[in-house]
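Pasting as-is:
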Amino acid sequence: MSIKKVLLLAAALIVAAFVLTACAGAAGEPGPAGPAGPAGPAGPAGPAASTADLTCTECHNDSAIITGKKAPWETSGHGSGTAFFEERDRNTCVFCHSGATFSAAIAEGKNFTEVEAGDANPTHQDCRTCHQIHVTYTSADWALETNAPVAMVTSGATFDGGSGNLCANCHQARRYMAGFVDKTDATKYAATVRFNTHYSVQADVLMGLGDFGVEGKPGAHYSMVENTCVGCHMGESQAHGFEPSLATCVTCHADAENFDINGYLTKFEEDYKMLEEGLVAKGVLTPAEDGTMATVPGTYDAALSQALFFYNTVHEDGSEGIHNPTYFKALMENALAAVK
């Protein structure tokens, strides 16, 4: 074979190789999937789960982490009260009276004026009200629902007391004396049987707020006690009966043996009794059938109204002024002057 024929044959083979390669690369559309094959054999069993693998056991275990909090909580007003059921239909009440509504409203960033409906299935304040129970199913669920500073509704002030912020969402005044100004004489006040802040005035007292006598300022129990309400009413042991802890007091009052520090309570109770007698003599306070004292509805001048409103505020604050002694001393002096 001549060299020319060999070269021509080689060239032809090269062209043929390129053609075959091009044809092989042009794949068509895939055909339909075939039927599923039979199941493979079962693999070996995995290791059995142990309680150490269950995050739930961080809380649900053989310790007293739950029962130790539940027992005292059940004796507290939060755990034993029935107002949650009585106030379930009132949208203006359920924020604080139904634990479930409180938790839901806090999650939505609402305050007690922004709840639009009552609660058909109310609950008292339980673990879920204050804590993020069963969110992560770990001990992180003990975290509080909120500890954000609270924009207080009536005063407009901001309460910023650490973990006590959770409490301040409810424990704040619903109204001041300005809500009782007489419609025909702005210098006087129209007192009703509910001439008060509607309980829960503790946050206002701690901050020295209110329009019923003197200008106040935040007390030491607001500015110096870590976590404010929680620091005093739960202490280092996180006791859920919410009774004030003397152990917290001795941090500053080293020799305190009871809450009558420097005779403050003794003097305050004597003055409060004197104020009560003065208000009865003025005809604005009267004994009720249940043994308590009741406001006599009427229109009174500013000084007498301030004295009466302060008398009721003492009852609703519940601390006999311990929340802010300096503020309550000034208010007491103002009130006593009005009933002389």
